[in-house]
Design brief:
globular; Tumour Suppressor Smad4; 2 domains; six-stranded antiparallel beta sheet; 5 helices
Amino acid sequence: MKISQAIIFLAKETNRPLAEKVKNHLYSYNCNAQIITSFNDFKTWDPVGLLISLGGDGTLLKCMRYAAPHQIPVFGINCGTLGFLAACEKEDACATLAQFLEGSCTIQQRPMLQVKLFLPGKSSQFFTAFNDCILRAAAPRTLMVSAAWNDTKIPPYYGDGVIISTPTGSTAYSLAAGGPIVEPSVHVFVVTPICPHSLHQRPLVLPADGKLQLTPVLDYAEDRALLSLDGQTNLSLEPGARLEIQIFKHPALLVCPPRRDFFTVLNRKLNWGERTC
Protein backbone atom coordinates (compact mmCIF):
# COMPACT_ATOMS: atom_id res chain seq x y z
CA MET A 1 0.00 0.00 0.00
CA LYS A 2 1.42 3.36 -1.05
CA ILE A 3 1.60 5.74 1.92
CA SER A 4 3.76 8.85 1.84
CA GLN A 5 3.11 10.22 5.33
CA ALA A 6 2.55 8.46 8.67
CA ILE A 7 2.21 9.45 12.30
CA ILE A 8 3.67 7.39 15.15
CA PHE A 9 1.89 8.05 18.45
CA LEU A 10 4.23 7.28 21.34
CA ALA A 11 2.59 6.58 24.72
CA LYS A 12 5.78 6.16 26.79
CA GLU A 13 9.27 7.53 26.29
CA THR A 14 10.71 4.11 27.15
CA ASN A 15 9.49 2.97 23.73
CA ARG A 16 11.14 5.79 21.78
CA PRO A 17 13.96 3.54 20.45
CA LEU A 18 11.28 1.31 18.89
CA ALA A 19 9.50 4.38 17.51
CA GLU A 20 12.73 5.51 15.84
CA LYS A 21 13.26 2.03 14.44
CA VAL A 22 9.74 2.02 12.98
CA LYS A 23 10.27 5.52 11.58
CA ASN A 24 13.46 4.41 9.80
CA HIS A 25 11.71 1.32 8.47
CA LEU A 26 8.93 3.45 7.01
CA TYR A 27 11.51 5.71 5.38
CA SER A 28 12.92 2.67 3.55
CA TYR A 29 9.46 2.43 1.91
CA ASN A 30 9.59 6.14 0.95
CA CYS A 31 7.19 6.99 3.74
CA ASN A 32 8.00 9.94 5.98
CA ALA A 33 6.93 9.60 9.61
CA GLN A 34 6.52 11.98 12.51
CA ILE A 35 6.68 10.84 16.14
CA ILE A 36 4.21 12.60 18.46
CA THR A 37 3.32 12.20 22.13
CA SER A 38 0.13 14.31 22.16
CA PHE A 39 -2.75 15.03 19.80
CA ASN A 40 -3.51 18.41 21.38
CA ASP A 41 -1.50 20.51 18.94
CA PHE A 42 -1.63 18.15 15.97
CA LYS A 43 -3.84 19.52 13.19
CA THR A 44 -2.20 18.56 9.87
CA TRP A 45 -4.16 15.38 9.10
CA ASP A 46 -4.50 15.95 5.35
CA PRO A 47 -1.38 14.15 4.03
CA VAL A 48 -1.43 11.43 6.72
CA GLY A 49 -2.21 7.94 5.41
CA LEU A 50 -1.47 5.85 8.52
CA LEU A 51 -1.49 6.31 12.29
CA ILE A 52 0.73 3.91 14.24
CA SER A 53 -0.16 3.33 17.89
CA LEU A 54 2.85 2.44 20.01
CA GLY A 55 1.54 1.30 23.40
CA GLY A 56 -1.14 -0.89 24.94
CA ASP A 57 -4.86 -1.25 24.21
CA GLY A 58 -5.62 2.06 25.94
CA THR A 59 -3.26 3.89 23.59
CA LEU A 60 -4.91 2.27 20.59
CA LEU A 61 -8.38 3.29 21.83
CA LYS A 62 -7.24 6.91 21.97
CA CYS A 63 -5.74 6.70 18.48
CA MET A 64 -8.97 5.23 17.11
CA ARG A 65 -11.04 8.15 18.39
CA TYR A 66 -8.71 10.68 16.79
CA ALA A 67 -8.23 8.83 13.49
CA ALA A 68 -11.82 7.75 12.72
CA PRO A 69 -13.23 11.20 11.80
CA HIS A 70 -10.40 11.56 9.26
CA GLN A 71 -10.80 7.97 7.98
CA ILE A 72 -7.16 7.13 8.67
CA PRO A 73 -6.28 3.48 9.37
CA VAL A 74 -4.61 2.65 12.69
CA PHE A 75 -1.78 0.14 13.00
CA GLY A 76 -1.34 -1.03 16.59
CA ILE A 77 2.02 -2.20 17.95
CA ASN A 78 1.50 -3.80 21.35
CA CYS A 79 3.90 -2.53 24.00
CA GLY A 80 1.50 -3.28 26.85
CA THR A 81 0.10 -6.47 28.38
CA LEU A 82 -2.97 -7.87 26.58
CA GLY A 83 -2.72 -6.18 23.19
CA PHE A 84 -6.07 -7.55 22.03
CA LEU A 85 -6.53 -4.96 19.27
CA ALA A 86 -2.94 -4.59 18.09
CA ALA A 87 -1.71 -5.67 14.67
CA CYS A 88 1.45 -7.16 16.17
CA GLU A 89 3.71 -7.45 19.17
CA LYS A 90 6.66 -5.06 19.40
CA GLU A 91 9.13 -7.82 18.44
CA ASP A 92 7.35 -8.20 15.08
CA ALA A 93 6.72 -4.50 14.42
CA CYS A 94 8.88 -3.97 11.33
CA ALA A 95 8.06 -7.33 9.73
CA THR A 96 4.29 -6.82 10.15
CA LEU A 97 4.50 -3.22 9.00
CA ALA A 98 6.27 -4.46 5.86
CA GLN A 99 3.36 -6.86 5.28
CA PHE A 100 0.95 -3.94 5.45
CA LEU A 101 2.99 -1.72 3.11
CA GLU A 102 3.29 -4.60 0.66
CA GLY A 103 -0.48 -5.15 0.64
CA SER A 104 -0.79 -8.35 2.70
CA CYS A 105 -2.98 -6.91 5.49
CA THR A 106 -6.64 -5.98 5.54
CA ILE A 107 -8.19 -2.78 6.86
CA GLN A 108 -11.30 -3.61 8.86
CA GLN A 109 -14.14 -1.16 9.41
CA ARG A 110 -15.20 -1.18 13.05
CA PRO A 111 -18.38 0.61 14.26
CA MET A 112 -17.92 3.32 16.87
CA LEU A 113 -20.38 4.89 19.30
CA GLN A 114 -21.58 8.46 19.08
CA VAL A 115 -22.70 9.82 22.46
CA LYS A 116 -24.60 13.08 22.90
CA LEU A 117 -24.82 14.37 26.44
CA PHE A 118 -27.57 16.81 27.40
CA LEU A 119 -27.19 18.71 30.68
CA PRO A 120 -29.84 21.03 32.15
CA GLY A 121 -29.31 24.62 31.01
CA LYS A 122 -26.17 23.81 29.01
CA SER A 123 -25.27 23.12 25.40
CA SER A 124 -25.15 19.48 24.38
CA GLN A 125 -21.76 17.77 24.28
CA PHE A 126 -20.59 15.26 21.69
CA PHE A 127 -18.28 12.28 22.28
CA THR A 128 -17.18 9.12 20.49
CA ALA A 129 -16.13 5.75 21.89
CA PHE A 130 -14.43 2.82 20.20
CA ASN A 131 -15.09 0.21 22.90
CA ASP A 132 -17.88 1.28 25.21
CA CYS A 133 -19.88 3.85 27.10
CA ILE A 134 -20.60 3.11 30.78
CA LEU A 135 -23.25 4.77 32.93
CA ARG A 136 -23.22 4.06 36.65
CA ALA A 137 -23.88 5.69 40.03
CA ALA A 138 -21.13 7.87 41.48
CA ALA A 139 -21.72 6.48 44.97
CA PRO A 140 -21.58 2.73 45.74
CA ARG A 141 -25.33 2.23 45.47
CA THR A 142 -27.92 1.07 42.97
CA LEU A 143 -28.94 3.29 40.08
CA MET A 144 -32.13 3.33 38.04
CA VAL A 145 -31.69 4.25 34.37
CA SER A 146 -34.73 5.08 32.27
CA ALA A 147 -34.39 3.87 28.69
CA ALA A 148 -35.97 4.38 25.28
CA TRP A 149 -35.24 2.95 21.83
CA ASN A 150 -36.06 5.29 18.94
CA ASP A 151 -38.23 7.35 21.32
CA THR A 152 -40.22 4.29 22.47
CA LYS A 153 -39.86 3.51 26.15
CA ILE A 154 -38.34 0.18 27.16
CA PRO A 155 -38.10 -1.22 30.72
CA PRO A 156 -35.63 0.71 32.90
CA TYR A 157 -32.37 -0.73 34.19
CA TYR A 158 -31.92 -1.06 37.94
CA GLY A 159 -28.59 -2.15 39.38
CA ASP A 160 -24.99 -0.95 39.37
CA GLY A 161 -25.29 0.60 35.92
CA VAL A 162 -25.30 -0.24 32.24
CA ILE A 163 -22.64 -0.80 29.54
CA ILE A 164 -23.25 0.14 25.91
CA SER A 165 -20.58 -1.47 23.75
CA THR A 166 -19.60 -1.72 20.12
CA PRO A 167 -18.94 -5.17 18.61
CA THR A 168 -15.23 -4.55 19.25
CA GLY A 169 -15.97 -3.58 22.86
CA SER A 170 -18.11 -6.69 23.37
CA THR A 171 -14.96 -8.58 24.43
CA ALA A 172 -14.03 -5.96 27.05
CA TYR A 173 -16.03 -4.86 30.14
CA SER A 174 -19.31 -6.02 28.59
CA LEU A 175 -18.00 -9.59 28.34
CA ALA A 176 -16.87 -9.52 31.99
CA ALA A 177 -20.38 -8.38 32.96
CA GLY A 178 -21.99 -11.32 31.13
CA GLY A 179 -22.54 -9.78 27.70
CA PRO A 180 -22.26 -11.73 24.42
CA ILE A 181 -19.23 -11.93 22.14
CA VAL A 182 -20.02 -10.13 18.87
CA GLU A 183 -17.98 -10.55 15.71
CA PRO A 184 -16.52 -7.06 15.02
CA SER A 185 -17.97 -6.54 11.53
CA VAL A 186 -21.59 -6.97 12.69
CA HIS A 187 -23.41 -3.61 12.67
CA VAL A 188 -25.04 -3.66 16.10
CA PHE A 189 -24.37 -2.43 19.59
CA VAL A 190 -24.85 -4.23 22.88
CA VAL A 191 -26.54 -3.05 26.09
CA THR A 192 -25.33 -5.02 29.11
CA PRO A 193 -26.68 -4.37 32.63
CA ILE A 194 -24.10 -4.31 35.42
CA CYS A 195 -25.17 -6.48 38.37
CA PRO A 196 -28.92 -5.99 37.71
CA HIS A 197 -31.28 -6.30 40.66
CA SER A 198 -33.52 -8.62 38.66
CA LEU A 199 -33.32 -12.17 37.38
CA HIS A 200 -35.07 -11.08 34.19
CA GLN A 201 -32.75 -8.39 32.83
CA ARG A 202 -30.35 -9.70 30.22
CA PRO A 203 -28.00 -8.18 27.64
CA LEU A 204 -29.70 -6.65 24.62
CA VAL A 205 -28.37 -6.52 21.04
CA LEU A 206 -29.69 -3.57 19.04
CA PRO A 207 -29.39 -2.69 15.32
CA ALA A 208 -26.89 -0.03 14.30
CA ASP A 209 -29.42 2.25 12.61
CA GLY A 210 -31.32 3.18 15.78
CA LYS A 211 -30.89 5.49 18.77
CA LEU A 212 -30.77 4.54 22.45
CA GLN A 213 -31.81 7.13 25.01
CA LEU A 214 -30.72 6.77 28.65
CA THR A 215 -31.59 8.95 31.64
CA PRO A 216 -30.12 8.29 35.09
CA VAL A 217 -32.83 8.70 37.73
CA LEU A 218 -31.31 10.89 40.46
CA ASP A 219 -33.70 11.79 43.26
CA TYR A 220 -31.69 14.44 45.11
CA ALA A 221 -29.79 17.53 43.94
CA GLU A 222 -26.54 16.20 45.39
CA ASP A 223 -26.82 12.81 43.65
CA ARG A 224 -24.52 12.14 40.71
CA ALA A 225 -24.08 9.52 38.00
CA LEU A 226 -20.81 8.79 36.20
CA LEU A 227 -20.35 8.55 32.45
CA SER A 228 -17.19 6.80 31.21
CA LEU A 229 -16.14 6.61 27.55
CA ASP A 230 -13.55 3.95 26.72
CA GLY A 231 -12.48 4.23 30.36
CA GLN A 232 -10.57 7.42 29.42
CA THR A 233 -13.12 10.25 29.41
CA ASN A 234 -15.01 10.35 32.71
CA LEU A 235 -17.78 12.83 33.48
CA SER A 236 -19.95 13.52 36.53
CA LEU A 237 -23.64 13.87 35.66
CA GLU A 238 -26.08 15.92 37.71
CA PRO A 239 -29.85 15.33 37.95
CA GLY A 240 -31.60 15.99 34.65
CA ALA A 241 -28.77 14.72 32.47
CA ARG A 242 -29.64 12.41 29.60
CA LEU A 243 -27.79 10.54 26.85
CA GLU A 244 -28.48 9.74 23.22
CA ILE A 245 -26.32 6.92 21.85
CA GLN A 246 -26.06 5.68 18.29
CA ILE A 247 -23.45 4.43 15.84
CA PHE A 248 -21.00 7.12 14.70
CA LYS A 249 -21.20 8.03 10.99
CA HIS A 250 -17.50 7.23 10.44
CA PRO A 251 -16.24 3.71 11.17
CA ALA A 252 -12.83 3.21 12.75
CA LEU A 253 -10.27 1.65 10.41
CA LEU A 254 -8.11 -1.04 12.02
CA VAL A 255 -5.17 -2.75 10.30
CA CYS A 256 -5.31 -6.54 10.70
CA PRO A 257 -2.55 -8.93 9.48
CA PRO A 258 -3.60 -12.25 7.89
CA ARG A 259 -2.61 -14.36 10.91
CA ARG A 260 -4.26 -12.11 13.50
CA ASP A 261 -7.94 -12.62 12.69
CA PHE A 262 -10.62 -12.10 15.35
CA PHE A 263 -11.13 -15.73 16.37
CA THR A 264 -7.41 -16.50 16.52
CA VAL A 265 -6.82 -13.48 18.78
CA LEU A 266 -9.87 -14.39 20.88
CA ASN A 267 -8.39 -17.84 21.46
CA ARG A 268 -4.82 -16.64 22.00
CA LYS A 269 -5.56 -13.68 24.27
CA LEU A 270 -8.72 -14.77 26.14
CA ASN A 271 -8.47 -18.57 25.84
CA TRP A 272 -11.81 -18.73 24.04
CA GLY A 273 -12.67 -22.34 23.13
CA GLU A 274 -10.00 -23.85 25.38
CA ARG A 275 -10.87 -27.03 27.27
CA THR A 276 -10.73 -26.65 31.03
CA CYS A 277 -10.00 -30.30 31.80
